[in-house]
Write a structure and sequence with these properties.
single chain, mainly alpha, 56% helix, Cro/C1-type_HTH, Tscrpt_reg_HipB-like, Helix-turn-helix transcriptional regulator, Lambda_DNA-bd_dom_sf
């Protein structure tokens, strides 16, 4: 999950948003945003997609990197 968390963090910073700003704009909790960016392994996929939607993206099945 850290790959998605890294992506969210990079895009959030590029947009000039703090974690708090991002949480408010995306409708997610600040704790969730922090945990996602820190690579927490157990997060809800619907919330991940809610975060990714801020950048026009969504999580979809793909080949696992080794």
């Amino acid at each position: 999950m850290s790959t998605i968390g890294d992506y969210i963090k990079k895009e959030r910073k590029k947009a000039g948003l703090t974690q708090e700003d991002f949480a408010i704009r995306s409708g997610l909790g600040l704790r969730f945003v922090r945990e996602l960016e820190q690579g927490k392994e157990t997060v809800r996929l619907d919330k991940v997609n809610q975060a990714l939607a801020m950048f026009g993206k969504e999580a979809v099945p793909g080949k696992k990197e080794e």
